[in-house]
UniProtKB/TrEMBL annotation:
This is Alpha-mannosidase. One of its GO terms (biological process) is oligosaccharide catabolic process. Gene3D superfamilies: Glycoside hydrolase 38, N terminal domain (3.20.110.10), Glycoside hydrolase family 38, central domain (1.20.1270.50), Golgi alpha-mannosidase II, domain 4 (2.70.98.30). Signal peptide: none annotated. Keywords: Glycosidase, Hydrolase, Metal-binding. GO terms for molecular function: alpha-mannosidase activity; carbohydrate binding; metal ion binding. Belongs to the glycosyl hydrolase 38 family. Residues 267-345 form the Glycoside hydrolase family 38 central domain.
Amino acid sequence: MTDIKVIAHTHWDKEWYFTDNRSMVFSLIDFDEIIDYLSNHDDISTFLLDGQTSIIEDYLRYRPENKDQLKELISKGKIITGPWYTQSDTLVISGESLIRNLQIGMKQATDLGGYQSIGYLPDSFGMSEQMPLLYNQMGLKYAFFRRGIADHLIKDREFNWISSSGESVKAFNLYHYGIMAYPPNEDDGSYIEELVDKLKKFGNRKPYILFNGEDQKPIRKNIAKIIQNSDYDIEIDSLENSLDEVFANANDLADYTGEFTFGQHSRTHKSIFSTRSDLKIKHNRLERYLSEFIEPLSAISYKLGLRYEKELIEECFKLMLLNSAHDSIGMCNSDKTNNFIENRYDKVNDISSNLADSIMRRIGDGVSLSPFNFQVYNTLPYEREEYIKCDILTPFKDFIIKRDGKDIAFELINIEEDQTNLAKSIKEIGVNNKISSDLNLYDKIYRAKILIKDRIIPMGYQTYEIKNSSKNQLKDLFSYDKFIENEFYKIHVNDNGQIIIDGDSNINKIYLEDNADEGDSYDYSSVDKDLFISEGKVLDIKVKKSDMYQNISYKLIRKVPYDLKNRQSRILDNELISYLSITLYKSKKYIELNYKTNNNVIEHRDRVVVDTKIKTTSSIADQQFGTIVRETDYSKYKNWLKEGWDEKPRGIEPMISFAALDSNQTVCGVSDGVREYEILDNNKIAFTMFRSVPYLGKANLNDRPGRASGVHEIQMGHALLDTEIETTLYICDIENDYFKMHDFSKKVLNKAISYQAGEIYDNTDHFVISKNYNCPSNYSLLEVDGAIFSSLKQATNDNDLILRLYNPYRDKDINFKTNIDKLDFVKADETSKDQANNFIRPCGIKTIKIKNQ
């Protein structure tokens, strides 16, 4: 066996304190050199080009003439790439995004000659517990990572990493990324001896793996000469070959199930989840919108005979995946870089929302009912009873709503005249290639906002007609009461702004809490003698009550310090103004809380705290395709600083959409905003709204001693001054049933959406499209019972549809039912066969290929 393997590589951050354009320009220089050297020399047998294909995609955009030369090097194994498209974060990126990242990366790498069978993430800030599941589903042999490991989790650095579903991958933990980054040009062997000693102490076994290279570094052309003087049997090799040797005779590997989020041996930045909350919120909403609305909607339209816009959707995903890279989603970047990141979000939003508009408009135009009708879309594969907010145009000031001939209950929220669309559309009659028109029958058009309550068919849409009525539906909803209530909750707001929950609930109250943050764009950091501000002055309180819902809204003014210096001096020299709106719906057992704050101070953090009657020592949160239970007692790590940890262990945790207390009857909170929570005093859930710090990097923090992470400079974009943060929380009493928690989260975050098409929109403002097809009034593509929905999309390599479901339980299997006839069971790679049954293991997934009929 070889003693030492040297991995020649570069780790190429696409953006950071520099922009992606700067990174791309300099990559052209370095990649030219790499390709030229490897094509003409054999002393470096193989070179790892960071395991992500997006940097090669950029390179070939400007060096297309080098594609054949690059393909030859990759095919021969002289350049190693993949399997990722970008070097993703794994803790706050959805499971669907991680799968798409691998699918795109592996497809691109295959087209270029192949990819390494390694989940290669050497610099991501911690590892999700579900990575073994994903790697197995995508056919990868090994997991390779650096950050997050701690001695109390597992002492070995090579081990079997096992998901809750039982899927296992051999994992290798890298010691101090770039351990051989800067070898001296002349070495008598002592330099390599010193490195090997470190790896022995760290717990690695032979062959010892040394990495030569680092962030944005060129190929070290004399590395073969440098290692010649070593007494060890040493060679340059690929990482995959090296891991093959490491694990070939490793029959005594320890087993581990869990995540890696501790900063003992390297920083994991376990509060970066709330940096630049404004951008994080955009990411989280768009990520969910793509996989849980746009793709299912596209699948529905495809089955109705429309084109599935696979290329447009992939472009959106690729832009999102660029923003999923560990530095990009961390937003621990320069302001200029974050501006580019935001531009990608805006582009994704623009493409996806217009794609949705075009699909729903064509379906609506194809429904042959009355001229003024609208559809309600449900992109979850279950029937559900919902309240649906609808914005409609109607020729009737007084009207009723019918579906399939039956009256549908609704509340008229607002109505006003809107003549613009009518005038423009009458002018353009015939442009849509329709011979006759009903628009001349109307002399007025009204825009109405309504709230419908109805049962909605699964994975499809249903059509509603607007009919004339003699009954005025508009009601005065304003109330002089000081409370709101439904069958489950009674709520009032104290004079200090705290929300009090009365009745049979485990929730005591909900309040905002502002406190100091001495950190930077990487980490929240606590201060000595902090000042917590959880009360304020209530103004403009309003109560609305209808047959369907009740709402209370108010403005909350809190006196706060402008900065850390003033907080420590207890100088409350600024007003932080928040707008809160609380809604209860009839027969719905949850509280909808909308939060808006325009930030005007720095070096602080704002959170919504849910105070409960429950005492617990652990929390529950969702993760990719499953649920995780975490300890809440971090006092056992109180000696972290003496023990030389890189970062303070803290209970600030990631989630995908919800967090709850671990108790038989519990309280759960779902957020459409930042994916970060913390359990306080064993009975409170604190959901982070935002952090405001004016530093990209900062040295010697209380919670992270030593050097600054990244660049030590002021970047005011991280302070979020004059930035409005808006988040909606859905808080409920619920059984400690993981399925019910995931189901609740899916439904409140994927509300049914209404859309109105028709001739009234056929004018230049909205584009004019021909009417040359028919669609049914109601349509349901499929139905699922007994599993949680993840995605429905067109397959990567053909036109079949792919349905993915998962089991949220940690300790029991589930069996699901579906009304699909022709199907195959495949793995997430969409080609490998899976067990042909309706059985899903704990925190496991099932991918179903729906054959075209």
